[in-house]
Amino acid sequence: MVGKKDVLKIVALILALALVASTYGWWECGRKNERLLESIYVDSTRSQVFLSDMADSLNGSIKANASSDYLWSQLVLYDEHSIFLGKIFFNLYEQTGERKYYFIHTAAYNIAGFFTAALNDKPPQMQEMVKRNLKSLERIQECFGELLRYQKPNEIPESLAEELFNLSEELK
User: Fold this and answer.
1) What's the half-sphere exposure (Cβ side, CA atoms, 13 Å) at 7?
2) How many angstroms from the chain centroid is the CA of residue 153?
3) What is the pTM (predicted TM-score) of this model?
């Protein structure tokens, strides 16, 4: 005959096994989520590379007296990369709720807004707008260069995200 103590031992064993299984499942889910976030972040690398050279490239084009069509095509490229980067970091923000991703998302959209505004101007005003903002663009470029140093999104310091956001607010 099975006694109460034996039943309690069996129930305790079943509960312990269930706890171990659920803990492992939770841990595995967390690992998969982390890999997914890293995969999303890796997709942003190309855009970060482009934006980490934007001020130098734009300044070089202006100094070389490049055609307005060439400058326009550069601005379109940087605008598209800014928008893409903004979308990537918004996805990271939606998945984690971390403020740093929202700061970078908003900064990227502010930068895209600047490029869009410049693209909507006539060529002389477009070039002048870029010239006026070169110092801010250089500092933003440095932030993107710094951002490239981080292999995983969770390594990005919030201070860098805030700095990028604040610099993007300076663009006029």
Assistant:
1) 4
2) 8
3) 0.82
Closest CA to 168 of 72, 56, 85: 85
CA distance 161 to 140: 11
C-alpha angle 40-46-51 in degrees, rounded to nearest 5:
115
- Residue-level pLDDT, tens digit, the chain, 172 residues: 677 887 788 877 787 777 777 776 676 666 767 787 787 888 889 999 999 999 999 999 999 999 999 999 999 999 999 999 999 999 999 999 999 999 999 999 999 999 999 999 999 999 999 999 999 999 999 999 999 999 999 999 999 999 999 999 999 9
CA–CA gap between residue 158 and residue 19 (Å, rounded): 35
Residue 108 CA to residue 90 CA, distance in Å, equals: 10
